[in-house]
Automatic annotation (TrEMBL):
<dbReference type="InterPro" id="IPR034660">
    <property type="entry name" value="DinB/YfiT-like"/>
</dbReference>
<keyword id="KW-0479">Metal-binding</keyword>
<dbReference type="InterPro" id="IPR007837">
    <property type="entry name" value="DinB"/>
</dbReference>
<feature type="binding site">
    <location>
        <position position="142"/>
    </location>
    <ligand>
        <name>a divalent metal cation</name>
    </ligand>
</feature>
<comment type="similarity">
    <text>Belongs to the DinB family.</text>
</comment>
<protein>
    <submittedName>
        <fullName>Damage-inducible protein DinB</fullName>
    </submittedName>
</protein>
<dbReference type="GO" id="GO:0046872">
    <property type="term" value="F:metal ion binding"/>
</dbReference>
<dbReference type="Pfam" id="PF05163">
    <property type="entry name" value="DinB"/>
</dbReference>
Amino acid sequence: METTTSSSSAQIINKDQLFTHWLGHRKVTRRTLEAFPEKELFEFSIGGMRTFAQLMKEMLAMDSATARGLATSTWEALDEEKAELTTKADLLASWDQSTEKIQEYWKDITMEEFQKQIKAFGQYDGTGYSILFYIIDNEIHHRGQGFVYLRALGITPPNFWEQY
C-alpha cells in the first residue's frame, strides 16, 4: 500500500482536541500514581524494570519541557534524575505543576510548529507532532508498566478509558 502526504489543511482532529486527549492520558497517569503505596512506588519492580517512581521522573523530565520546546523552540537537556522528588506527595505535586505548565505553553504552540523539523532536547530528530506523539505514547507505555506493578501488588489500576 502506497502512502502519500499532502499539505492539505484537512484535519482529523484539531489542536484543542489533541490537547484534551493528552490531558486525558495525564489524568489516568495521575490516578495510577495515586494508587501506589508509598514504599512500593520507590522500591517495587518486576524483571529488572525501573520502579514506577523512576518512570514518573522520566515522564516529568519530558512532558512540560516538550510543551515549552514546541512553544518557544528552546530545548534543554533532559534531567531524568529529579533527585529532589523523594515522596509520593512530591511526585504528585510535580505532576500537577507540570500539567499547569503544559496548559500555559499550549496556547503558544502554533500549528506550524507541529510540522516543523526539530531536534528535541538536543538529541531527538523529528517533527513537532512526532515528538509530541512520542511523549504521549511514552506516558501510555510507562503507565502500562505501572498497571502491571499494581496488579502484581494486588491493587486494581484505574480504568484507562476514564480519561475525561
